[in-house]
Specification:
By secondary structure, the protein is of the alpha+beta class. It is 41% helix and 29% strand. The protein has helices spanning 24-37, 41-52, 56-75, 122-128; strands spanning 9-13, 16-20, 80-82, 86-93, 96-99, 107-110, 113-120. 2% of the residues are buried.
Length: 129
Protein backbone atom coordinates (compact mmCIF):
# COMPACT_ATOMS: atom_id res chain seq x y z
CA UNK A 1 0.00 0.00 0.00
CA UNK A 2 1.51 3.35 -1.01
CA UNK A 3 1.36 6.67 0.84
CA UNK A 4 -1.72 7.90 -1.04
CA UNK A 5 -3.59 4.79 0.00
CA UNK A 6 -2.50 5.41 3.58
CA UNK A 7 -5.21 8.08 3.75
CA UNK A 8 -7.71 5.24 3.98
CA UNK A 9 -8.71 4.94 7.61
CA UNK A 10 -9.31 1.51 9.09
CA UNK A 11 -11.19 0.83 12.28
CA UNK A 12 -11.10 -2.66 13.76
CA UNK A 13 -13.99 -3.12 16.17
CA UNK A 14 -15.27 -6.53 17.21
CA UNK A 15 -13.21 -8.10 14.42
CA UNK A 16 -15.09 -6.10 11.79
CA UNK A 17 -13.18 -3.77 9.53
CA UNK A 18 -14.93 -0.57 8.47
CA UNK A 19 -13.72 1.79 5.73
CA UNK A 20 -14.60 5.47 6.12
CA UNK A 21 -14.27 8.39 3.70
CA UNK A 22 -12.70 6.64 0.71
CA UNK A 23 -12.93 6.86 -3.03
CA UNK A 24 -14.27 3.64 -4.68
CA UNK A 25 -10.88 2.71 -6.20
CA UNK A 26 -9.12 3.11 -2.85
CA UNK A 27 -11.82 1.05 -1.16
CA UNK A 28 -11.23 -1.78 -3.64
CA UNK A 29 -7.45 -1.64 -3.14
CA UNK A 30 -7.90 -1.52 0.62
CA UNK A 31 -10.23 -4.53 0.64
CA UNK A 32 -7.80 -6.53 -1.51
CA UNK A 33 -4.93 -5.79 0.90
CA UNK A 34 -6.98 -5.94 4.11
CA UNK A 35 -5.89 -9.50 4.97
CA UNK A 36 -2.26 -8.36 5.09
CA UNK A 37 -2.92 -5.30 7.24
CA UNK A 38 -4.46 -7.15 10.17
CA UNK A 39 -2.50 -10.35 10.79
CA UNK A 40 -3.79 -12.21 13.84
CA UNK A 41 -2.38 -15.25 15.56
CA UNK A 42 -4.98 -17.42 13.83
CA UNK A 43 -4.00 -15.97 10.42
CA UNK A 44 -0.39 -16.85 11.21
CA UNK A 45 -1.37 -20.41 12.19
CA UNK A 46 -3.39 -20.80 8.98
CA UNK A 47 -0.52 -19.51 6.84
CA UNK A 48 2.07 -21.73 8.55
CA UNK A 49 -0.16 -24.80 8.25
CA UNK A 50 -0.66 -24.20 4.53
CA UNK A 51 3.04 -23.55 3.90
CA UNK A 52 4.24 -26.61 5.85
CA UNK A 53 1.46 -28.92 4.69
CA UNK A 54 0.40 -29.84 8.24
CA UNK A 55 -2.85 -29.50 10.14
CA UNK A 56 -3.80 -26.22 11.80
CA UNK A 57 -3.67 -27.99 15.18
CA UNK A 58 -0.02 -28.97 14.68
CA UNK A 59 0.87 -25.48 13.44
CA UNK A 60 -0.86 -23.91 16.46
CA UNK A 61 1.04 -26.23 18.83
CA UNK A 62 4.36 -25.35 17.20
CA UNK A 63 3.61 -21.63 17.38
CA UNK A 64 2.62 -21.92 21.04
CA UNK A 65 5.82 -23.88 21.78
CA UNK A 66 7.85 -21.11 20.13
CA UNK A 67 6.11 -18.41 22.17
CA UNK A 68 6.62 -20.43 25.36
CA UNK A 69 10.34 -20.95 24.60
CA UNK A 70 10.87 -17.22 23.97
CA UNK A 71 8.98 -16.33 27.16
CA UNK A 72 10.92 -18.85 29.27
CA UNK A 73 14.27 -17.65 27.89
CA UNK A 74 13.46 -13.97 28.51
CA UNK A 75 12.19 -14.71 32.04
CA UNK A 76 15.65 -16.11 32.83
CA UNK A 77 17.19 -12.87 31.56
CA UNK A 78 18.85 -14.48 28.54
CA UNK A 79 18.53 -13.43 24.91
CA UNK A 80 17.34 -15.60 22.04
CA UNK A 81 18.62 -15.21 18.49
CA UNK A 82 16.86 -16.72 15.49
CA UNK A 83 19.39 -16.40 12.67
CA UNK A 84 17.98 -14.42 9.76
CA UNK A 85 14.92 -13.32 11.75
CA UNK A 86 16.10 -11.37 14.78
CA UNK A 87 16.99 -11.26 18.46
CA UNK A 88 14.68 -11.22 21.45
CA UNK A 89 16.23 -9.79 24.62
CA UNK A 90 15.40 -8.14 27.93
CA UNK A 91 16.09 -4.43 28.28
CA UNK A 92 16.18 -2.53 31.56
CA UNK A 93 14.22 0.70 31.78
CA UNK A 94 15.29 3.17 34.49
CA UNK A 95 12.86 4.73 36.94
CA UNK A 96 11.57 8.12 35.83
CA UNK A 97 8.98 10.77 36.49
CA UNK A 98 5.89 10.85 34.29
CA UNK A 99 2.61 12.74 33.97
CA UNK A 100 -0.73 11.33 35.10
CA UNK A 101 -2.88 11.33 31.93
CA UNK A 102 -6.06 11.92 33.96
CA UNK A 103 -4.56 14.90 35.78
CA UNK A 104 -1.86 16.49 33.58
CA UNK A 105 -0.68 18.72 36.43
CA UNK A 106 0.09 15.71 38.62
CA UNK A 107 3.52 14.06 38.36
CA UNK A 108 3.85 10.34 39.05
CA UNK A 109 6.85 8.12 39.63
CA UNK A 110 7.25 5.30 37.11
CA UNK A 111 9.30 2.47 38.64
CA UNK A 112 12.26 0.77 36.99
CA UNK A 113 11.32 -2.35 35.06
CA UNK A 114 12.50 -4.94 32.60
CA UNK A 115 10.85 -5.01 29.17
CA UNK A 116 11.15 -7.45 26.27
CA UNK A 117 12.62 -6.04 23.05
CA UNK A 118 13.09 -7.37 19.53
CA UNK A 119 15.77 -6.37 17.06
CA UNK A 120 15.17 -7.48 13.48
CA UNK A 121 17.95 -9.41 11.74
CA UNK A 122 19.54 -8.48 8.43
CA UNK A 123 17.56 -11.00 6.38
CA UNK A 124 14.24 -9.73 7.77
CA UNK A 125 15.24 -6.09 7.24
CA UNK A 126 16.26 -6.78 3.64
CA UNK A 127 13.01 -8.64 2.96
CA UNK A 128 10.93 -5.73 4.24
CA UNK A 129 12.90 -3.10 2.33
Amino acid sequence: MNKKDAQVTFFAQNRQKVLIGCEPVRILRAVLTLNYLFMTKQNLVDSAAAAAGVSKRVAADVLQALVDAVTKTLKKGDSLTVTGFGTFRVSKRAARMGVNPRKPTERIKIPAMKVPTFKAGKTLKDAVR
